Backbone:
């Protein structure tokens, strides 16, 4: 075989090796593009579902006074910025209640609610800022207490055997959060899971 034949043969060998590489690269590019499209669609669907979850199934008529009565969480007279919400679900409903107190009064109030010797714990593992529980305080225009890094405290309470001055009024198990969002001012958050047997009164008839 002369040198020109060897060169031609070598070129064909190189081309035959390069072709599969080119084809594989093109296929990988197509796969990557497809994954990108699917990822974008999945993100959009997830975002839409989150938005629907935030806006769906909230009942009108769930005033702070009504929610207070359902939970057995008495709202102090000095409380301001009172907010409440009630969300229905397939397996259970969720009630939300929130109000603001001067920090000293909030400390006194929670002390009359939780059992003697019990301390509210800090948030050692805060959630990300975009955290959205099934029934979010975001519906009430508030940040989620689980996302706070500075100053939050939490306790879980149930009415069974809770004979404290305020605890004796408790009707349901609740998660209680407090957050001193500005010096001297504390917001109290209450969330409770409720069996789906409670219906808020129509708007205009709620207390």
Residues:
């Amino acid at each position: 075989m002369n040198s020109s034949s060897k060169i031609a043969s070598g070129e064909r060998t190189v081309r035959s090796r390069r072709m599969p590489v080119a084809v594989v690269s093109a296929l990988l590019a197509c796969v990557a593009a497809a994954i990108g499209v699917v990822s974008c669609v999945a993100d959009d669907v997830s975002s839409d579902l989150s938005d629907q979850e935030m806006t769906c199934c909230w009942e009108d008529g769930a005033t702070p006074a009504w929610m207070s009565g359902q939970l057995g969480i008495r709202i102090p007279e000095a409380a301001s910025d009172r907010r409440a919400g009630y969300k229905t679900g397939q397996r259970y409903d969720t009630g939300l209640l929130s109000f603001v107190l001067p920090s000293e009064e909030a400390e006194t109030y929670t002390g009359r609610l939780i059992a003697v010797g019990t301390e509210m714990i800090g948030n050692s593992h805060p959630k990300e800022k975009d955290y959205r529980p099934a029934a979010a305080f975001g519906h009430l225009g508030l940040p989620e207490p689980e996302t706070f890094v500075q100053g939050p405290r939490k306790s879980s309470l149930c009415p069974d055997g809770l004979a404290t001055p305020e605890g004796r009024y408790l009707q349901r198990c609740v998660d209680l959060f407090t957050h001193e969002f500005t010096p001297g001012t504390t917001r109290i958050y209450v969330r409770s899971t409720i069996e789906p047997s409670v219906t808020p009164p129509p708007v205009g008839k709620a207390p």
Remarks:
- The first helix runs from residue 3 to 55.
- Strands lie at 80-87, 93-102, 121-122, 152-157, 174-182, 185-194.
- The chain has a mean pLDDT of 81.
- The radius of gyration is 29 Å.
